[in-house]
Amino acid sequence: MNDIPRSIFRREAVRRYMERREQTILPRFVSPRVFYYLWALLGLLLAGGAIAWVTPVPTYASGFGIVVTQDGGSQDANDIVLAVFLPPENLSRVQAGQTVFVQGSAGADRVSCPIVAVESQIVSPDEARERFALDAGTAPIITQPAALAIAQFQSPLSGKPAAAYLGSVYRVEVEVGTERLLSLLGE
Asked: Which of 25, 35, 93, 147 ranks highest by number of CB atoms within 10 Å?
């Protein structure tokens, strides 16, 4: 008798089994559907980054404005202007023709006024008080040197004359340029 044990498996089946055991098979961590979703998400993130890179966003210089008569003139509606005081570093960025956005009292809409003139030099607090003959209520608002722009005043309420607003103080913003949206996200 023959002492060699006989296998119940065919020789060809054993060979294929051994070959498959030697192959490297990576485990499937994600299904193909999830894999496609991840690629789509990556594509959306890249598209969003590209849009944020090229989208311009306006930048504003904030300050305050006082309704005054132009150089101490009469209270005629044409002589009433908005003296806009901005931080000195914005002097080079403010020009005639730009728009001043005036924020009214609580809940009121913003009113826009065109800038008609910009002072070429920084204005001191004393010079501003003297030039516009500011009263004791509005004079303490000007505490440091500022860039001065003159805007044509438009009354927020159409029923009242412009002279009724003399001495009023408003928060103002002037659009001084644009930045990329992406640069604002890093701040």
From this structure: 147
